């Protein structure tokens, strides 16, 4: 299907994409670039890439599909480094967890060349980063959100849809705005709350003692509090407008539950909890609008 | 070790305790009482109890160990029903998730007989309630907190420690006040936040659509939001003073993280997240003060 994949950023996400395309027989050759030469060297030794490029631009040269899998903060510099080779007919995608900021940057840097860029957010990851954890199955059974612009080449959107589908992902399309609003609600806010909650525990005098009594509920509730600090710093700042809308909604909900507790209103408290408990019982991953959604 | 165990409330907790004592050869006979005769009937058919008692008082009669495993709201009525048979030398325990309210009720109802009562909180449970889910291994490897009073008979505290230890639990002792403060922090607050968060999602216009995009982080973070509404209504109200202290601490922490996001202060945001992430990475269940604690 593709002649050459250029991977810019040979980490978990970029490396897994390369392995998945290789395994599915979707690409003849993979060329990779990473800021650190030792990463590219490791990626080559692991068979994730076939050759190392000496720059991001050289990873694009001769490629008909390019994946930008760099930290969000490096997106602008990467677009600038490659823009002269962003040409019609070559599929460019990213893997960022926020989309409005990436789209804005792409618009500003790529200008009239933006039609080749199909913004993508694969809902996949692992607790352990790095190319040594790259996995050909990382995207299998997971959702990938594409947020094409009016200027995006529809042929490339179709190619993007096909390549993700062929490596086992379910592709959804929406606007960058809707994407960021939805993920502020179901991903960014829970992370923010888990960080705030864990901080509140460890910053109180008896906090360390309390931790020795915590059980399985606590373990699951706080798992995401162990996420990568620099990644989440960037996500929460990049999507701050939507995130702050969600914290406002959450505060409203917290006020309501505190109010009925203070008032000792058992029935209202039970009703409030039941609304959440019923909703959660009927939800399941990847489907999730209730039992009928299957 | 014991001649007869009286179980008042033959549900998951009471039934599992009976099965565990039987399996460990710690009791000759188990007599059970439940408000609903069909429950006691089922418990007998499943071999959880040997005989059904027609009242709570009759379940106490002839027993040298008694477990009250009734909903928190039924504690007072149960103590009243059995108080005439609360005698020195017989070990009485409960399994409630809050302890100050139980101790206060016991003091008020049992009066000078309170020495026989050893308040207990086994940190164990299952998502599915009912005697049909009773499990002899439910308490194995789990913590049990005892909160004895100055008046509690030390011989009975030792017997309580022994019986929980012999069915595989790790026994800790602390005051009812410290217990309630600790569990407000590591259990009650996370439940309250999970209820509030899930409510905030489902009560917004696009909430149902957002849910279809939620992933594994959301799944784990919200698992406890599916907990039993009437149980959690009772816990949050019974421990409301400590719970509200914890929501105040949490709000302080939420304010701080929102403040740095609004200010766009990347370094302060990263530091705040890193404090939580490092703390959570070093925590593990049942040990948990960092890597050195094992």
TrEMBL record, chains A, B:
It comes from the Bacteria. Keywords: Oxidoreductase. PROSITE patterns: PDH_ADH. Residues 3-291 form the Prephenate/arogenate dehydrogenase domain. Coiled coil: none annotated. It holds the Pfam family PDH_N. InterPro entries: 6-PGluconate_DH-like_C_sf, NAD(P)-bd_dom_sf, PDH_C, PDH_N, Preph/Arog_dehydrog, Prephen_DH. This is Prephenate dehydrogenase/arogenate dehydrogenase family protein. It comes from Pseudaquabacterium terrae.
